[in-house]
């Protein structure tokens, strides 16, 4: 009686396993110890376009994976050999007709009662619909961002002209006050200039961010670019800017690099604030690269902020856009260079090929 009941339970369990194997929405396959397919369910054959007889015997991590992800699949299978389980590996797999689709796979070792390896159970999910939904959402998001970008660019452009009028008028008044000093008026002119310059800087950030443009390459003097960047910024009396007088010529987009240099100098000014401080700019040539350092005596960047320093819209300033550094980084990378930062003292380092581009 016991043996009959035990057999009945086993038979019933095997039927349940078979039902689950065939009705689960996931792709299921059983591999032998060498990774060859021993069995697979209906969803597996349907997605891959094989009859079961065609799929059996194929090496799952190799024959069913696109060329692009084959090494990833082999590495995941090797890790499965070591750890006994491997979860959620995204892999682009290949159908019988050589077309591909996105999927995600997990695997586990199958062992007998004595712990001897018998094979592997591999499960996969077809992500085609998910990928399509993600692409559709991204496309919709990109369209909205494009509309926002166009609108933002128009607003920024409309603001730029009156800001220039305010700045030029304030500078003209400032020059006139040199000949006819008036302390009360002078006190009002300086804040106007600082505020207008800050607003113009923010408008320029937005204009560059929403309207990235190709490089306009020419030969420029690094010394002249640095000097021009300093000249275009109002340097407070409490801050001294020192820079190397050695010169080197590089091929670059001078206007865009001028914007990067100006942004880094302005950041240093804002960090130093009302305290007495210095900004030191130096550069040297190492083989066919130029290394430019912007060093300031400010308080430094907190450790918790450092990983986010180049994120879009991330800023600790109440009046900042959070775009300056990401724009600068993008411009430098467009020149095949790098922009990095470190503390003690705070140093932004630009590394550029001396020939950042090739003149036609």
Tell me briefly what this model is.
This protein has 360 residues and is an alpha+beta fold.
Q: Helical content, roughly?
A: 40-55%
Instruction: Flag low-confidence runs.
Output: 1-7
Structural class: alpha+beta
Tally of separate domains: 3
Helical run tally: 10
Query: What CATH architecture of the largest domain would you give?
Result: 2-Layer Sandwich
Strand-residue fraction?
15-25%
Terminus-to-terminus distance: 92 Å
Rg (CA only): 32 Å
Structure explained in plain terms:
- This protein has 360 residues and is α+β, with helices and mostly antiparallel strands.
- The protein folds into 3 domains: 2-126, PAS domain (Beta-Lactamase); 128-211; 215-360, Heat Shock Protein 90.
- It contains 10 helices and 12 strands.
- The chain has a 5-stranded antiparallel beta sheet with strand order 2-1-5-4-3. A 5-stranded mixed beta sheet has the order 7-9-10-12-11. Strands 6-8 form a two-stranded antiparallel ribbon.
- Mean pLDDT is 83; it is low at 1-7.
Which features would summarize this protein structure in a list?
360 residues, disordered N terminus, 48% helix, Heat Shock Protein 90, 5-stranded mixed sheet
List the helices and strands and how they pair.
Blueprint: H1 2-23, E1 27-31, E2 37-40, H2 42-48, H3 52-55, H4 60-63, H5 70-83, E3 85-94, E4 100-111, E5 117-126, H6 128-179, H7 183-210, E6 218-221, H8 222-231, E7 239-243, E8 249-252, H9 254-272, E9 277-286, E10 289-296, H10 324-334, E11 338-342, E12 346-353
Parallel strand pairs: 7-9
Antiparallel strand pairs: 1-2, 1-5, 3-4, 4-5, 6-8, 9-10, 10-12, 11-12
Helix pairs in contact: 6-7, 8-9, 9-10
